[in-house]
Amino acid sequence: MSKRIPLSPVVPCDMSDSKNDPNLTRLRENLQKTGQTIAEAATRSGRDSTAVTLVAVTKYLTTSQTALLPEAGTLALGESRPQQLWKKGAEIVAPNLQWHLIGHLQRNKIKPTLPLVSLIHSVDSLRLLEELNRQAALQKRTVPYLLEVNISADSNKHGFRSKEIETVLDKVDDYPWLSLRGFMAMASREGGRTRAEADFKKTKQLFDDLKKKHPQGANLTELSMGMSSDYDLAIEQGATIVRVGSALYEGVF
Fold this sequence. Notes:
eight-stranded parallel β-sheet; 8 strands; 17% strand; alpha/beta
């Protein structure tokens, strides 16, 4: 069985060491609160909090704001836009910092993106898989990735439909420079937390079914689900990665 990809935890910080920066102090408080919510939800799902990785979403932050995150103690950062990932990744330096690409990736943006990312969450087409593998081979680097599942079958969303995923898994061995780690899904835009919980449950069922019956199932260790409004529900349904933004930045930025 494959082990989970090593993902960066939230690093405990001395709350008194805030350099008199109120934003940093509040950010640490929010991280602590979010970590507690993660721990409680993990307990409800019969797991330890260490089974869940928090990815701090940086989409709406400036580079200087983003630079506070590793200082506050979170080392896994998620950017939606490749151009912003390039900029922030070049300017922010911190030990053990990991960048996750969580938004749509166009094929013409793959080359400069690969050297920066620890995990790509949003692989949503076979054409993207093919070009990722080609660029990874040219750069001689193995690229961990998740398949994006359009669990709500929303025509306005990216990702593979549930019925397509098994066929995609059949082709994974065609891409030797890529390392499949699991699935990513987003809840429906409509229906609130009730619909979100149902979507997460469906995704986890798909994940579990394919782990059992498909030869690639042993590689499925990561399930990226949940954002600020519903990450607790996602954890309860089995998420191993949650992507949280606004809940971390309330009262900070």
